Amino acid sequence: MDKKYKAIAKIGIFSKGLTYFLSGILTLLAALHLGGSTSGKSQVFDFIDKQPLGKVLLIAIALGLICYACWRFIQSFINPEGIQDNWKGKAERISYFFGGFVYLGIAFLAAKHLWSSSGESSSLSDYLSPSLMSILFFFIGLVLTVIAGFHIKQAYQKVFMKRFNIQDRTWHKAAKNAGYFGFYARAFVILILAYIFIRAAVYSGTNEVKGTKEAFSFLQDSAYGSILMGVSAAGFAAYGLFIILLARYRRFGD
Fold first, then answer.
1. What is the pLDDT of residues 54-97, one digit of tens each?
2. pTM, whole model, 2 decimals?
3. Domain spans of the chain?
4. DSSP assignment of 172-191, as one string?
5. Residue 252 burial by Cβ neighbours in a 10 Å radius (0-12, 13-18, 19+)
């Protein structure tokens, strides 16, 4: 595969992993009452913005996430890894296409903190009718349910390790366990998000944009909330570490 595609992929994958890792760590600290807060992407970027050289880090992460979005578009249109041209392969490439737009949005969220002191944004309800909002939220809930199922399948069938080239390394088993934990935890949080979106579609007055922060808050408010939130947050951090490792040892099918 072309070296420039590999470079774009590795930079993007690393930025994605770092974002998930920080989100998990900040939420885990909140669950353990050691500071931090229930954290989504916006809260992660707000945290980075407040650090020394925060603006520089935000620029780097935003560019990295743009690289990841570009990698998804490359996978969708150019198909450098030779994804099969059957219905399953086409569905995979379509998912990469839409995933590219998702990460472009996250990159915009990171860049937004460069010129805005707050991560606040206008609500979709300012632009869409309640009925259209309900349809949109229900559709998002269904899509999230499918994504969660895909993560569970990847963990159960152990297919995610095929992306690695670390079989001869002593920490291979640790990386594999981090991947299991991370994929299951991410699937669990995504299922909660799916429930929140579908509930928002069914009940009036709940049409606010939802994200990871709301999923962790939902866990926190439930029975055994701190334990559930802590385990899920640790899983997010493990998923982030797994993705960061993937940036270094990713197998690109060549």
1. 888 889 999 999 999 999 999 999 999 888 889 888 988 998 99
2. 0.78
3. 3-249
4. HHHHHHHHHHHHHHHHHHHH
5. middle
